[in-house]
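thought: user wants a sequence for this fold. calling inverse folding tool.
action: design(structure=
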C-alpha cells in the first residue's frame, strides 16, 4: 500500500508530504484547490509522461516520492524486483525527478530505472482510475481483460501469447519459403541452362591459364628447339665441346693439386661445374626430344581457349576458378529448388502443430471466460440498483472470431438502462454518470480477483448524488476492508465513509498561491462534510447531518 507521498516543486505545490491509512482514504477540497494536481504528481511515480512546464520554481527540480509498505510479501512484486536486479526491502521507495532542462529520472529503492520498468512495477502496486478512464469501459480490450482477470487466465494467456507469436513466425517462414519456391521455379530453367553449359565445358582448376601457357610454347616450338639444339651442340658435339674442355682443364689442375693449398678447391669447383653442365646437356636433349609443333593440337587448344573466353565474358569474370565458382553456385541453386519442397513440408508441419496447440489453449481460455459471464452479469446487475440504476442491466456477449493474439473470443459488454431488453454496446448508450457507476461496480469485482493492493479513484462519482452516492461509498468501504483505497470526491455521502479524510486547500505564501493537504480530525471532518452539504457557512442541520454520516 502507499504509506507516504512526498511532492516538491510540482505545479502550485511547493512542498507536501502526507501519510495515508491502509483502508479508505478520502480526499476533498474546493474545485481548483489542487486535488487533480496531486493525482498528476502521483502519476509521475506510476510511470506517466512528464512535462517541464509543471515546475513551480523553474530553477529547481521537481521530486515526487512514494513509499509503499507490505510489498515484500507480494510474490509478483518480489519477482519483478529480482528480475530487474533491484533491492528487495521492507519498504519500497519509488522516486521521480524532473530537472529544469526537461530531463526525467526514475528510481526504485534508489536504483535508476527506465519508464518501462516503472510502468511494470506500478501495474503491480496501484490501479489509478481517473474521470476520463470510464471511456475504457466501452473498449473491447478492457472488456475482455475484465473477463480474463475474473477467469484467472493470466498464465494461460501468457503461454498462449508466446504460442501465437511462434505460430505467426512459423506462418511467416512458410510464406517466405513458398515465395522462394515460386521465384526458384521462375529462374530454374535459366539456371539449368547456364549450369549445363558450364558442366559440358568441364573446365578444371586453372585450365585456361595453363592452356594459354601451352599455346605460347607450341607456337614458338621451332625457335625453342633451335635454341635447345644449339645449346646441346655447344656442350657436347662441337669440335671442342665445352664439357670436354672443362674436363681437360680439371685434369690439368688435378696433377698439381698437392703442390698448392688452394688448387684442390679449384679442382673441386671445376668438377662440380663439369657435372652440372653434363646434367644440363642431358636435360636439354630430353626437352628437345619432347618438343613438337602439332597443328591439330594447337587447333584444339585454340578452340578450348575460345570457349573459355566466351564463358568468362558471359559471366563477367576473369579466371577459370571464378568460372568454377559460378558453376558450383548454380549447382547449389538447383539443389535448393530440389530441397525446398522438403523445407516447405517441414515448415507446414511446424505451423500446423503450433496452430493446433494455440487452438487448444485458446479453447481452454474461452471456456474459462464463458464460465464467468453469468456470475459477472449477476453480480454487476445486483450492484446497479443500490448505486441508482435499478432498471439497468449489463449483458456480456462472447462472439467467436478467427484466432488472434488473445484467443478466439470477441468480448462485448451490452447495456440496457431501462429494462427495455434492447441491449446495445456500452459506448453507444451509457451516459457519463452511468459509465462511472458501472466502472466502479466492475472494478470492485476485478480488484478482488487481482488482489490489487491500492485502488485510486479520481472523482468516479461524477453525475451521482443522494442514495446512489451513499451506495458508492458503501462499495468503496467494503473494498477498503481488504485493501487500500484512495478516493477524490465531491460527495459528502462518500466522504462520510472515510477511515482517513484529507482536505486539499490553497494558501497564500510569500505572495504566491500554493496547494496544501492535511489530515482532518473528527470535528474538522464534520465541518468539511457540512460545507459539502450546504456551502461555506454550514447550517446546524447540515452539521448534524454530517455528524450522522461520520458516526454511521
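)
observation: tool returned 552 residues.
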Amino acid at each position: 500500500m502507499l504509506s507516504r507521498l512526498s511532492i516538491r516543486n510540482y505545479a502550485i505545490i511547493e512542498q507536501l508530504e502526507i501519510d495515508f491509512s491502509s483502508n479508505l482514504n478520502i480526499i476533498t477540497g474546493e474545485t481548483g484547490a489542487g486535488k487533480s494536481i496531486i493525482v498528476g504528481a502521483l502519476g509521475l511515480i506510476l510511470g506517466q509522461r512528464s512535462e517541464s512546464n509543471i515546475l513551480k520554481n523553474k530553477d529547481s527540480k521537481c521530486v515526487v516520492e512514494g513509499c509503499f509498505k507490505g510489498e515484500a510479501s507480494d510474490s509478483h512484486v518480489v519477482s519483478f524486483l529480482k528480475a530487474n536486479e533491484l533491492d528487495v526491502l521492507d519498504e519500497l521507495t519509488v522516486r521521480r525527478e524532473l530537472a529544469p532542462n526537461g530531463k526525467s529520472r526514475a528510481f526504485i529503492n534508489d536504483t535508476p530505472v527506465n519508464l518501462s520498468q516503472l510502468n511494470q512495477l506500478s501495474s503491480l502496486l496501484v490501479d489509478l482510475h481517473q474521470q476520463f478512464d470510464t471511456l475504457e469501459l466501452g473498449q473491447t480490450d478492457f472488456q475482455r481483460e475484465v473477463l480474463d482477470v475474473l477467469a484467472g487466465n493470466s498464465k494461460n494467456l501468457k503461454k498462449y501469447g508466446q504460442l501465437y507469436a511462434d505460430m505467426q513466425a512459423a506462418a511467416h517462414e512458410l510464406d517466405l519459403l513458398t515465395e522462394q519456391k515460386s521465384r526458384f521455379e521462375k529462374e530454374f530453367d535459366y539456371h539449368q541452362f547456364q549450369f549445363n553449359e558450364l558442366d559440358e565445358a568441364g573446365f578444371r582448376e586453372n585450365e585456361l591459364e595453363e592452356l594459354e601457357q601451352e599455346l605460347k610454347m607450341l607456337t614458338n616450338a621451332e625457335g625453342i628447339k633451335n635454341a635447345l639444339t644449339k645449346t646441346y651442340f655447344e656442350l657436347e658435339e662441337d669440335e671442342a665441346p665445352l664439357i670436354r674442355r672443362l674436363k681437360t682443364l680439371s685434369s690439368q689442375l688435378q696433377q698439381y693439386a698437392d703442390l698448392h693449398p688452394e688448387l684442390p678447391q679449384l679442382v673441386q669447383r671445376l668438377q662440380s661445374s663439369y657435372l652440372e653442365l653434363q646434367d644440363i646437356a642431358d636435360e636439354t636433349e630430353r626437352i628437345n626430344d619432347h618438343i613438337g609443333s602439332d597443328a591439330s593440337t594447337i587447333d584444339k587448344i585454340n578452340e578450348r581457349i575460345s570457349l573459355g573466353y566466351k564463358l568468362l565474358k558471359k559471366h563477367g569474370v576473369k579466371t577459370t576458378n571464378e568460372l568454377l565458382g559460378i558453376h558450383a553456385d548454380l549447382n547449389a541453386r538447383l539443389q535448393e529448388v530440389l530441397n525446398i519442397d522438403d523445407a516447405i513440408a517441414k515448415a507446414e508441419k511446424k505451423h500446423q502443430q503450433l496452430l493446433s496447440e494455440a487452438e487448444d489453449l485458446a479453447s481452454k481460455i474461452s471456456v474459462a471466460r464463458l464460465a464467468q459471464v453469468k456470475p459477472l452479469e449477476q453480480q454487476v446487475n445486483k450492484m446497479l440498483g443500490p448505486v441508482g440504476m435499478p432498471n439497468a442491466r449489463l449483458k456480456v456477449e462472447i462472439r467467436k472470431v478467427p484466432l488472434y493474439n488473445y484467443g478466439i473470443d470477441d468480448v462485448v459488454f451490452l447495456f440496457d438502462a431501462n429494462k427495455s431488453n434492447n441491449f446495445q454496446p456500452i459506448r453507444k448508450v451509457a451516459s457519463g454518470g452511468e459509465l462511472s457507476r458501472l466502472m466502479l461496480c466492475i472494478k470492485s469485482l476485478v480488484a478482488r480477483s487481482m488482489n490489487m493492493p491500492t485502488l485510486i479513484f479520481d472523482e468516479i462519482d461524477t453525475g451521482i448524488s443522494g442514495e446512489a452516492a451513499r451506495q458508492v461509498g458503501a462499495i468503496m468501504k467494503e473494498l477498503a476492508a481488504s485493501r487500500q483505497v484512495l478516493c477524490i470526491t465531491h460527495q459528502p455521502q462518500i466522504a462520510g465513509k472515510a477511515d482517513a479524510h484529507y482536505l486539499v486547500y490553497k494558501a497564500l505564501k510569500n505572495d504566491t498561491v500554493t496547494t496544501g493537504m492535511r489530515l482532518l480530525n473528527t470535528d474538522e471532518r464534520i465541518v468539511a462534510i457540512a460545507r459539502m452539504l450546504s456551502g461555506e457557512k454550514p447550517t446546524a442541520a447540515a452539521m448534524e447531518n454530517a455528524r450522522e454520516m461520520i458516526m454511521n
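thought: summarizing for user.
answer: Here is the designed sequence. Residues 286 and 343 are 61 Å apart (CA to CA).
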